[in-house]
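Researcher: Watch the backbone:
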Amino acid sequence: MFKNVSVKNRIAFLYSISFCVILLVILGTIYLVVKQGITKTMYETLEEEISSHVDYVLHEPVFTHYVQPREWEEVEHTDIALNPVFIAVYDKDFQLVENSPNLVQNKLEWNKDQAEKIPFYTEFNSIRLLISQARLIHHGEVVGYVVIGVSTKHNELALEYLRMALLIIFPLSVILIFIIARFIASGAVKPVFSVISTAQSISESNLSERIRLPHNKDELYQLTLTINSLLDRLEHQIVSAKQFSADASHELRTPLAVIKGTLEILIRRERPAQEYKEKIAYTLNQVNRLYHLVEQFLLLSRVESNSLVLNSSVFDVKQEVLSSVERLQNPFNEKQLVLNTEKLQDHSIENYREFLEIIIDNILSNAIKFVNLKGEITVFSFVENQRYHLVFEDNGIGMNEEDLRFIKDRYFQIGNSTTGHGLGLNIASKLAALSNIEMLIESQHKKGTRVVLRF
């Protein structure tokens, strides 16, 4: 029903419908109250007239008259145009003895089928009357009967005018309230269109722009706040994707440059077979490094898209460290590094073995990369507070605070930093979080780095 109706018209329509229901209740109540009041007034008039005539006869010392002197001079008994009261008095033999002057040729008949002082309606000369009747008693003896009628014509006419007025007021009020409601709704939704306009103007080129918050902290304020929060997250994701792309390109460029340079050297002139073997072996190492790096990127992408099914297994942490050292033996030998694993303890855990392999490989690779020639790397473990701690320490160039912050937030933008620190540790940190392993990194520039894994 409201599919193609604008919001302001929808609000105005619903508001008008609600107003119609309320107005109908109010107007109906007014009509019923007025009608009840008119009816009550007629009943009270009849009761007053009946009581007046009955009491006059009842308390008259000597019965001489049926009505009070000058009774017929009252306006309601002489006029038939304005709230007339018709009275007919009969003797005890039901003979008409007196009637009000406004009863010229007709008379009110005593109705034997109606109880005394119980009003009832009847037609009299095309006029609807409310009738009441009673016996006239003097000193315990019935001396006559009185019949009193009150015309309902003017009251019904007043109710008819009231009905007409209400029927005119109702549609006019509905139309007026719809116009007013539409105007109010238009002003109410105007800030929404402002929010829409601002949101539509935001693109990749002006991601930092935000919608201005309204002054009142109402539902619109909450909507604007939510949209701004969404824009913050979108900006973060877009910046993150760009940063990751730049970091990945930087990491991939190094082994590619080494491979390209080595091959260019090989084709410049003829070389001994042994030198060819050495250069090819070195190139293969770089290819393997490139392959593992791409594999890690793909793994991280699958993890973040929840498309990777993880299976845990039980394995020994010390053995994983030694296996990683064996895989990285060539880089160790090239830089003539000293590796100390004397205080590394055996410890079996149930976790994601593939993730831990990548975590350890990246930590050691990062250490090898930034440790000076003939430097030292120490790997040891200990148990504290029922938690197994695996520690990697080196005496390399270390990292400053900005690089550490980059590691803690994989997509954090660090000015123009090109140190190359952290992408491997960033991947390790992400996988550690997924493996429920707490990873702590401490580093001092030109003094070394310490990485702790808590299981």
About this structure: The longest strand covers residues 127-138. The first helix runs from residue 7 to 59. The two ends are 60 Å apart (CA to CA). The CA atoms of residues 58 and 139 lie 7 Å apart.
